[in-house]
Amino acid sequence: MIRVGIADSGVDGPARASVIARADFGREGQQREPQEAPRDRAGHGSALAALIANTHAVELLDARIFDAELRASAAQTAAAIDWLVAQGARILNLSFGLHEDREVLREACAQALSRGVLLVASTPARGAAVFPAAYPGVIRATGDARCAPGETSWLGTTQADAGGAVRTPCGKVAGASAGCARVSAALASLMHRQPCATREELLAVFRREARYQGPERRLS
């Protein structure tokens, strides 16, 4: 089983059965006693967790950083990343973006990458770069309207590396967040098939097996 860490609004619903550990983090990065019920007031984390758990080859680690408003500080996010890595996550799904670079977040991501963890973070299809997606070594994922559920794309642009279907079955989450989770799910499946593969080898297979190569061509 591949351990996938999700830093988000918590996991409720069917995907909760795949969660093996959970923790909550306050704005200053302090770890708190996990809120149990209802855990996910926004529905965001649960929708994304369902996409990842659907691979049937994962164990989920649930780091709750968002409340109903889906806002988190850099310290909060960094503490969640550190905890997820300490719990043995092989992949981190980070379906959010902060508009400003923060040292504490940059260092947490660098430490995770140095331990061989794959970081998959959402990035908008257009517009300014966001963090942690903009950090070196992070896989930048977005929504791709060409992709059906189960399909991915290799974009290879200055904006994004990979993409996935833009909607979730529950309809509560769409766009880059959903695409990010689908890319994480695809990488977890590949890692399950090839557990000893390096990051570069996994990404090479991901690119080769992607349904679409390159960005969508829009007619003017």
Q: Topology of this protein?
A:
Layout: E1 2-8, E2 19-25, E3 31-32, H1 44-53, E4 58-64, H2 74-86, E5 91-94, H3 103-114, E6 118-122, E7 139-143, E8 152-154, E9 162-164, H4 176-193, H5 199-209, E10 212-213
Task: Give me a quick take on this structure.
The chain has 220 residues and is α/β, with parallel strands linked by helices.
Structural description of this entry:
The protein is an alpha/beta fold and 220 residues long. The protein has one domain: Peptidase S8/S53 domain (Rossmann fold, 3-Layer(aba) Sandwich). Helix content is 29%, strand content 20%. It contains 5 helices and 10 strands. It has helices at 44-53, 74-86, 103-114, 176-193, 199-209; strands at residues 2-8, 19-25, 31-32, 58-64, 91-94, 118-122, 139-143, 152-154, 162-164, 212-213. The chain has a 10-stranded mixed β-sheet, sandwiched between helices. Strand 5, helix 3 (103-114) and strand 6 form a beta-alpha-beta unit. Helix 1 (44-53) runs parallel beside helix 4, helix 2 runs parallel beside helix 3 and helix 4 crosses helix 5 (199-209). The radius of gyration is 16 Å and the shape is globular. The mean pLDDT is 93.
Structural features:
globular; single chain; 5 helices; Rossmann fold; alpha/beta; 10-stranded mixed beta sheet; 220 residues
Q: What gross morphology would you assign?
A: globular
CATH topology call = Rossmann fold
Strand content of the residues, in percent?
15-25%
The CATH class label is: Alpha Beta
The CATH architecture: 3-Layer(aba) Sandwich
**What is the name of the CATH superfamily?**
Peptidase S8/S53 domain
Major sheet characteristics: 10 strands, mixed
Q: Averaged pLDDT, please?
A: 93
